[in-house]
Amino acid sequence: MNKFYEQGLRFECTQCSLCCRFEPGYVFLSEKDIKDISTGLNIKPNTFIDKYCRVVITETGMRLSLKEKSNYDCIFWKNGGCTIYSFRPLQCRSYPFWQASLKTEQTWNQLEESCPGINRGRLNSKELIEYWLEKEKEANYSYRDKRYGT
For residue 63, which of 92, 111, 147, 148 sits 20 to 30 Å off, Cα-Cα? Predict the structure, then answer.
C-alpha cells in the first residue's frame, strides 16, 4: 500500500506550546508513562495518579489522562514550557505522528491550522514515522485501578 508519507513528512517543533495549551483534550498515559513520570518526579505511582491524573471512559474502556488546568493548559505546562519534558508521555513525544493524524494527506495538512511546525522544517523519514506509529500501537493505555479492583 502506497502511503502519502512514503517520501517522509516535514515537521519540526517550533516550541510554540499550542499542543499543550488553550484547548481541551486528553493526554493518555500508558503504564510505562506512569512509571517514568512517577520516577522522574520522585513520587509513588499512586500518588502521581491521585494528584495529576483523571479517569476517562472511552469506547475501549477506562484510560488515564493528565489533568488540565482551568484554562486547559496541561498540568505540567509552566513558565513557557513543559516541566516534565525529559520524561514526558509517549503521546507528547510522538506528536504529530499519530494514527489519527496520518489517516490521509488531508488530515495531515489540516494540522497546519493548529501547529506551525507541520509541513515545515526537517524531513522526517517514513521509517521514523512508522516507528512512532508502532510505539502508539504497542502502548497499553487501558487503566485498571489495582487499588480498588476496577
Answer: 111
